[in-house]
Amino acid sequence: MTDLTERKVIHSMRNHLPRLLRGDPVLSESILTVTREHFPTKVEVEDRFTRMLNELAREREAQTRKWEEQKAEDKRKWDEQNRKWEEQKAEDKRKWDEQNRKWDEQNRKWEEQKAEDKRKWDEQNRKWEESSRRFDEVHREIMAQSKKLDRSIGALGARWGLQAESAFRDAMAAILVESFGVEVVNVNEFDDAGEVFFGRPDQVELDVIIKNGLLIICELKSSVSKSDMYTFERKVRFYEKRHQRKASRMIVVSPMIDDRARPVGERLGIEMYPDSPNVPVTRPETR
């Protein structure tokens, strides 16, 4: 058969075969029998595709399951790692907190020790200062007693002519200056009319203190008799009359005041003291 004849046959089959197959079942079955040897049927093809699709679906499900399992495993590992990190952070924080607590405790102990040492030093210094103060007080008391003894001896000396009365007066005045913080002025004025010494003109000697506007007149003598007390009161009145100023206080300081002179001094409002340090800055209240 030539090529031209084959082409014609093929062309004729293409044109007439479909109609022949539809019109001749035997022919159609024969052709299908021949083709089955080389090609699967529609059902077989559909079954094969169905099996392939099912296989692909199963593989996809398996792959999806593996992916989900991998994701879950990765998440579990990350969660485990994060848990370990959090535990490590918590442990580190606990250790740091413990270390800080120990440091704070140590610092507190140091501060307490410093405070205790300071308290002991302060207590020791206070004791030293108290001891020094007490020593100074005892020393001052001893010196005061010594000076008082010296003044008493001086008073005896002045009383019996062994020491000048002026020296005794100066010593007593110096102590008054120290006690009052002011100057003791020795006033020596002449009584022309003899008001003090019963008509006999003579010198009138007084010790005057002016403090905060107050006039204080003193008599500083080694010994004071009853007549001396009257004389001192007249001296004060003489000074008040001459200077037109009222004395706020009249003070007699003497280690030897005659017992008979004391009632006179009390009646005349005269303060009497055995020694200069005994004189108060303000007048004591009268009972």
From TrEMBL:
Region: Disordered, residue numbers: 60-123
Pfam families named among the record's database cross-references: DUF3782 (PF12644), PDDEXK_10 (PF07788)
Superkingdom of the source species: Bacteria
InterPro entries reported for this sequence: DUF3782, PDDEXK_10, Restrct_endonuc-II-like
Protein name: PD-(D/E)XK nuclease superfamily protein
Lineage: Bacteria, Pseudomonadati, Pseudomonadota, Gammaproteobacteria, Candidatus Kentrum
